[in-house]
Amino acid sequence: MSNKEVKAALKSAREAIKNKEFKDALKHCKAVLKLEKNNYNAWVFIGLAASELEHTDQAQTAYKKAVELEPEQLLAWQGLANLYEKTDQWDFKIELPNIYQRLVELYASSDKNKCYEIISKLSDIYQSDKEYLKLAKVWLQLIQVKEEEAVDKNELLQLLQQMTQLLSDCLNEEERDNETQQHLITAFEKAMVLMDPVPGEQHKKFSADYVKCLSKLPKDEPKMIVACESMLSLYPNQSYPLEVLCSHYLKTGVQNEGAVSCFSRLLDLAPNSGLGHLGLGTKALHALCYISRLSSSTGWCSLAEAQFKMQRYSDCAMSCSQGWFTLLYHYVIQIMNIICSCNLGHACVALHQINVYPVLGALKGRAYLNKGQVDEALKVENLSPTELCLFLKAASQSPDCGEYYFFLGRLYWDMGEETRKDRSKAHTHLLKAAKLDPHLGCVFRYLGHYYRQVANDHSRSRGCYKKAFEMDNTDAESGAASVDLSMEQDDMVSGFAALRADPEDWVCWECLGEAYLNRRSFTAALKAFGKAHQLQPSSIYSVYQAAAIKQTLGKFREAVAEYLQITAQQDYVPALKGLGECQLSLAKCLMEDCRDKGAIELIQQAIQNLFRAVEMRPDMSCLWKLLGDACTAVGTVTPNSVQVLVPAPLAGLDPNTQSHTLNQAQTLKVGERCYARALKLMPEVPSLWNDLGLNYYRQSSLSSFTEDNLTSPSLLLEKAQQCLKKAIMMDSDNHSYWNALGVISMSKGLENFALAQHCFIKSIQVEPNNVVAWTNLGTLYLKNGNIELAHKAFKIAQSLEPLYVNCWIGQALIAERVGSYDTMDLFRHTTELSTHMEGVKGYAYWVCSTLLDKSNRDSELYRYNIVQMNAISAAQVALSKYTERIQSDPDAFIMLGFLNEHLQLKRQALKAYKRAVDLLKSMSSTEELAFALGSYGRALCTFGQSEEAVRVYNSTPLQELSDLAGLALAYCRAGLIPESIKAYERALAVAYTEKEKAYILTALALLQHRQGNLDSAKTLLFKCSMLKEPISESLLCLCALGLVHSDATLAAAALTELLKQGSASVNVTEQQCLLTCALLALQGNYSAVQREASRAVHSNPGNPSLWALLSRLVPQYYPKKANVRLALLYSGVNQLASGRHSGEDSHRNALKTMQRAVLLCPDDPATWAGLMAACHTENTSCYLSGAAPSRQGLEQTLMSVTCFRQKLRQVKYYKLHVGLFPLPGPSCSACFVQVLNVSPEHPAVMLSLRQVQCQRLLLAGRGTVLPDSVLEQLHNTVMLNPTNLGAWHWLAEVFRSQGLLVQAVMAYRQSLQLASQLGLHSSQVASLLRLALLALGNCMAGVPGNEWTDMIIEATTEVLKLGSSPMALLFQALLHYVTKMAARETRRLLERLAYAQDYPVTVAQVSSWYLLRHLHAKNDQELINVLLQHAKMKGDKRLLEFHSLLASSSS
Q1: For range 757-774, the mean pLDDT
Q2: What distance in Å separates the CA atoms of residue 534 and residue 538, rounded to the nearest whole number?
Q3: Coil, helix or strand for 87?
Q4: What are the residues whose beta carbons fall under 8 Å from the beta carbon of 976, sequence distance 6 or more?
Q5: Which ranges of the sequence are coiled-coil (predicted)?
Q6: Euclidean distance between CA atoms 138 and 115, whole angstroms
Q7: DSSP conformational letter for 644
Q8: Burial, 1146: exposed, middle or buried (Cβ in 10 Å; 0-12, 13-18, 19+)?
Q9: Binning pLDDT at 50, 70 and 90, where does residue 303 land?
Q10: If you ran DSSP here, which 8-state letter would residue 1100 be given?
């Protein structure tokens, strides 16, 4: 893609974004990035498009990449800010201020208005998060920008005033930042300078704010004093600066003349000022002049302070009584705050001595309340009518004291429910207390209680709790309640603010995770809890919540790992419960795939963990219910595979004994007891009755009973029915209860079909979209023979849920009854939906029936149902799961053995037949046993156990032709020829058809010839050929017999009859060609030998065996046309094409043939090139099999030996060289240049030169981009050689290496068109396979688009039309692996290639690698073991090493 194309693509992306076609915009941008990975605009456009598509992670990554590329550009920063603003995600909210800060820096020099706007947003964030230092810096930055613009001083003054107002809140914080305080003071000072007029109202008010600010800063006392004096000089009648100075002197204890003067001046301006009186009284106290100050109430107060410090509490109270009434109450309250917190006895004694005032009775009640003795406080109130009104009198005598009203309201709150709900009591007094003293935090806590519990106003309640916690951060009750209400109301702002203030606070992260969890934002909650656990690894809660979320999302394995992490530290009941639930869910998933052993292990673990939880909390019904579910789950699998290890107490044994192993019936009985225990705790829960009824139903389905289970199935079914009726009585609107009762009622033992029909109809009425009830109703109709109603019910079920397998099974059974052609297709569909036992057996039956009927092999129905649908493999896999679960069905094992035979799985077929025979021996079915024994004997004979096969066949009645023929074959393979002849003669007597007799006669002829009876053999073969239906095999034997004994007449006659039969299979065609050539050679017609072989090759150009035969025959029988060098060369090439290397045949392979060719013609570069190809093949084979290559570097050595011998002939030599070696030497280029000097118009040499130059250029530096001019020159060079298929392939590879995939596809299609025009069959296959490989590479690399998938399917389908091709099948399997990795079809295709016997080793090994990866992803350990065993048999060491790597990486 050139620069113009990049610009065009970016323009298209911009237009697509403008038109809101964001997916198209992404495609254009990705096309740009393939060439220019660092294109800024492309990354920005990706971020914008992904943001609009709500792909937030992709948008964030794109914007950040653009920011890294061009940090000074605005677009990416703006996009990132917009993304963070509109996305409600905690990590985005935390990063947003940094983005704003960067935008402020960029806008400061370009767009002032934007800069102000961003600063305003940043200011709001910092203010809400209370990050005052950052807020101050932002405002200073804004003021600096304004100063640079030379704005009006009034505007600047307004900004400074706003800044002081915003920063003044920092003075109320406990932790104050010195730098922030200095910024605040600087802002005040600058504003004071700009303010005009002086003096003036605005200046006076601002000066008071300045003084107030300084009074809160202990370190700036000198500035505060100077500011107060300056304000007094300008505004001498203002008392506020004097009050600030007096407060300062009292706090610091300064009693100099300046302080006394300040107190006096304050009293002159405000005679009732408490600060002035307090200051003068304190001065007198310090001077020990008590008598001189007796006339002053402040003196009495100071005297009381002195007495309090001496712990003379009664004297202190009496001194207070001599002063002002209000001061008395105020001071006694302060005394009681301390006393009540230290010594309740002293408090009550003191109050008893001075109980003259009603307020003291209130204080006594307060003492009891502070100590938590509410009853005593109530006694204080209820002792007498006088004391009953103590609180009320105290409040009426001090109407401005909020504490009295608070304690009165609290007393009403603690008195009970009635006084709480009475607004005139608790609520009214608490509200008045809050108005009188808004800084009393406990008042707001109780108001929060009232609004939450009584008024149900959560918004007000949260506000009260929040204010209470802000006033007293040690109030844990208010803080917890505020957080709970925030999460209930989905308030995330407070959580974000807390995290910005302290990102390392793990408690905040947990609270944020809870908030996300309440919103059901599971991914965000998972991240938050993960962060909390990272900050606080010892926190169990965050790990538990993460595990619970993963359980909710269905990630059970990950959840189990999290739960185990918790239970390893302690027995945490919620974690044990979640662990048991996850293990039970995993077990059910394995049961759906018929992996019963793994499911039983998980159920056993679930029982162990749930029992640990029950031991800790036996009062929790849900734990007993889960235990019952775990025990009942074993009822699905076969009884033989259930051996569950349960704790002894759960099994009803001595708790001190070890765990006990239970069978299926015993485990179900334990489940029954668990449900009963749960019902004892919660008897009114209908779901528990339903579960108990289903448990009884599972127990009744067991056909055999042990000694400890003497209950009959009918009694168990009646119990189940009663339990379900009880559940329906409690909850008649639950459709599943009605459905379960219907299933139980129609089961064998009850068969109450009327009740079952009623239950199913009621279930449908409760829930019309009830696919299970409709299916069960259809099953009921089908069982009663009402096919029409059954069909309607199943049809409705299919429309409600097309993926529900049971309704499809019902339709298949109906089709089977009426004899429909769709029966097999329907059963096949059921196996694709899920593994259901009835559907699996039905499909296997129809596949086997179709295979047994050999008359339909050429029909379209057979090709579709068996060949195209890969029916044999699919049925074999499904039936294997069936027999793993149901191990007592001999019919299933017979069908499984039959399917295994078709798949050449001999050992598996043998095991299946043996299991069927063992089962049938215990039954009374004689015919089925005879059939199974015959099949077992056939499998033994095929497997090589001939003696055992003879014994098995002899145990059959030997009345069927198949048994007699099998016995004869077993005798033959065991070396018992006479017995074999006798058996064949018996078989001939029972043969019905002419074809059967022909096969038997042919076999007898072969046995007679083996014994040396030539005449008998001829007679039998002649007799066979005289039948009405002669077979080709007998004619082949007769012809071969004539050739072996040099009887040309006999051979010619037999061959003539053979050729009259017309077309035959591939193997027969090869044999016919060989026999014809042998007959011609026997007759001495050597020239015709070459013609016959050539004719066969012309008719079958894709058959390498015929080419190899021709290459051997021509030099031997027609030396005039023979070129021994070419014959050996072509023979070796054909052997290479057929994949024949030393690993397959140590005597006849390509390497030995090429070595002979080189020895014969050492000066021919083509033979050396063939030898190099053979060496390369051998090394590749060694590499794939895991062996060490024995010929490393030999290719380079061979090239150097022959490189300079014949310049002109190196063109042919190089054609193989380019494909074998990574980097040709410079001598090759020089060689071709010399050739061009001799023959400048030689296009082939020019092409080879360009190939050398291009190959060196590409491979010298990885990722080299060729200019467009070079690519054009290469294309023109190939056009000079338009009929050179290899040149088009090479050009396509160059285009592919440059990322020009469209051009590569066009080049391959050009080569395909050329091969079709020239009629080159092998070249067509090569072009199609290369095209498929190109598309497959793109699919595996994740290149978007469906065109590559379609191209693979199209190319491989065309290849398979031309002939069999293991490579095309491999490409199809890999396509399935990429697109549908977890699908069963993927495994079937890969297994077909991996276990094939006649496919090239490379194909089998590559398919084995991907099959191993597929099985690892599915965690199917059983099939992995089978594959590894097969690899050991084949010596595939690299697959074993690959398995070790996968196992280590997964652990």
Answers
A1: 92
A2: 9
A3: coil
A4: 950
A5: 143-173
A6: 11
A7: E
A8: exposed
A9: low
A10: -
CB within 8 A of 877, min separation 6: which ones? Answer: 1384, 1387, 1388
Q: What is the pLDDT of residue 494?
A: 62
Report the C-alpha gap between 956 and 973 in whole angstroms. 19
Q: How far is CA 1121 from the centre of its chain?
A: 66
Helices (H) and strands (E) in the chain, counts: 79, 2
Classify 1203 as helix, strand or coil.
Answer: coil
CA pair distance 466, 1160, nearest whole angstrom: 100
Closest of 105, 54, 66, 63 to residue 81, by C-alpha: 63
The label of the residue with tokens 């160059």 reads 1294
Find the range with the poorest average confidence among 341-350, 679-688, 1442-1451.
341-350
Answer yes or no: is pLDDT of 793 > 90.
Answer: yes
For 218, the token pair is 């202990």
Residues 1309-1325 as b/e (b if ≥16 CB within 10 A, e otherwise) read ebbbebbeeeeebbbbb
26 touches 49 (CB < 8 A): yes
Burial classification of residue 1297, based on how many CB atoms lie within 10 Å of its CB (0-12 exposed, 13-18 middle, 19 or more buried):
middle
The CA distances from residue 665 to 10, 606, 639, 697, in Å, are 71, 18, 8, 12
At 662, phi and psi to the nearest 5?
A: -115, 150
State how far the Cα of 650 lies from the Cα of 609, in Å rounded to an integer.
12
| The residue type at 1076 | T
**Averaged over 47-62, what is the pLDDT?**
87
The residue among 348 and 1282 whose pLDDT is bigger is 1282
The pLDDT, as a whole number, for residue 799 is 92
Longest dimension (CA), the chain: 160
Residue 1200, pLDDT score: 53
Strand partners, 645: 661
pLDDT at 729: 92
DSSP secondary structure letter of residue 425: I
What confidence tens digit (pLDDT) does each residue in 335-364 have?
444 444 434 344 444 444 444 444 444 444
In this structure, how many other beta carbons lie within 10 angstroms of the beta carbon of residue 568?
Answer: 8
Kindly tell me if the per-residue pLDDT of 1039 is higher than 80: yes
What SS3 state is found at 184?
Answer: helix
Q: Output 101 or 1268, whichever has higher pLDDT.
A: 101
What is the Cα Rg of the chain in Å?
Answer: 48
Helix, strand, coil % in the chain, rounded to nearest 5 = 75, 0, 25
* Residues, the chain: 1451
User: How many whole angstroms from its chain centre is CA 652?
Assistant: 42
- Residue 738: pLDDT band (50, 70, 90) is very high
CB of 367 within 8 A of CB of 339? yes
Report the alpha-carbon distance of residue 101 to residue 97 in Å, rounded.
6
pLDDT of amino acid 420: 79
Cβ-in-10-Å burial (0-12, 13-18, 19+) of 584 comes to buried
Q: Does residue 1162 have a cis peptide bond before it, meaning omega lies within 30 degrees of 0? A: no
Token representation of residue 223? 């500035």
Among residues 1207, 1201, 1282, the alpha carbon closest in space to that of 1249 is found at 1207
Tokens at 632, concatenated:
């009942």
Neighbours of 513 (CB within 10 A): 29
Tokens in use for 1085? 């017609």
1027: helix, strand or coil? coil
Q: How far apart are CA 357 and CA 377, in angstroms?
A: 17
Q: What pLDDT sits at residue 631?
A: 92
Between CA 518 and CA 366 the distance in angstroms is 41
Beta bridge pairs of residue 396: none
Lookup: tokens for 1377: 């692996």
Q: Are 1093 and 1077 in contact (CB under 8 A)?
A: yes
Residues facing 662 on adjacent strands: 644
Amino acid in position 1108: A
- Dist CA 672 CA 678 (whole Å): 10
* pLDDT (average), residues 754-773: 92
